[in-house]
Amino acid sequence: xxxxxxxxxxxxxxxxxxxxxxxxxxxxxxxxxxxxxxxxxxxxxxxxxxxxxxxxxxxxxxxxxxxxxxxxxxxxxxxxxxxxxxxxxxxxxxxxxxxxxxxxxxxxxxxxxxxxxxxxxxxxxxxxxxxxxxxxxxxxxxxxxxxxxxxxxxxxxxxxxxxxxxxxxxxxxxxxxxxxxxxxxxxxxxxxxxxxxxxxxxxxxxxxxxxxxxxxxxxxxxxxxxxxxxxxxxxxxxxxxxxxxxxxxxxxxxxxxxxxxxxxxxxxxxxxxxxxxxxxxxxxxxxxxxxxxxxxxxxxxxxxxxxxxxxxxxxxxxxxxxxxxxxxxxxxxxxxxxxxxxxxxxxxxxxxxxxxxxxxxxxxxxxxxxxxxxxxxxxxxxxxxxxxxxxxxxxxxxxxxxxxxxxxxxxxxxxxxxxxxxxxxxxxxxxxxxxx
Length: 436
Fold this sequence. Notes:
Number of helices: 14
CATH superfamily of the largest domain: NAD(P)-binding Rossmann-like Domain
Number of domains: 3
Largest sheet: 11 strands, mixed
Strand content: 15-25%
CATH class of the largest domain: Alpha Beta
Number of strands: 17
């Protein structure tokens, strides 16, 4: 074998980055591998746009069969994104004996089990480091270097768009809408940012991380997902006064007979390292029984960081090919016959501290009514703020609870929100005080 031949599906931003790595670091990659990595074919519907890299026109094609059915291609890099046609292309490439590298977190989170079953059947590798955390090598760390640990939890700030918006809101006291617009103008947010700001992108990633850490299937449809569109500047200000920051936090916890997998705005103490992850950066916090807590931090997106992760996977596959190793590391870190099917704990059963902001009439007895209803549902008050700032017809009351069950919180707020003195729906933000 004179070289390892690569087929690239998708010549967009990340695909361009992959070609830049192959061209700029060709000699370095050969020194580390012992053989050349050769770009055999690039497939995309748009073959005319100038990407800023030079590719021999003989390597360009709009026909996907030139890669997935090409006997000369050893490794297929899928950078199309989305569910279809990416899934069909990958499955056919696998059936033709091709190894797969993908950055497609949505596809792996929702259809990963089907793809992994096909890879098992045909004895090929599927690697997806770039699907979570951009250039942060978290997946390989979980599967390889930290595989002796029993993980109790995995937490992450996994979407640069949301983290940039919340950082700007925190530092400048701005509201959500103008910061989102500024993020779009700067290129940090898509023209349609729905998947990012509604938490879907983050949910795809935590579904994969939970599966890897806890050795279980994760039903993506059951991952509770709440975005940042309802986070208000006033809540960020109160959080700061109480010693917290608000982040869109991805949470995975191993409870033994079940798991928690959820995404929502979360208040975390300013003393925690995660609270200092700002701007477009990402971070993943792992807690293992022997490792203890560890934080992996870096660029979570972008052409170069993501291309770095993609090419790391390509190099890993190429090394196995050249050494004669086959499926040395299970795709999800656990042998297929050892993967569990743990249920995801219902949100109604979650136990947490809660930040509650009530907007009420400035009248006597209001606090007594609210605290009475909270007490009725076994919700105790840890601390309270009752600032003087108010609108013409409403004043805020901010309460931090002790541990409470979400079902009880929901019942209490349903009753409180029906009080005549309550002027707006109560704002709830969950709090993580003990990360383990």
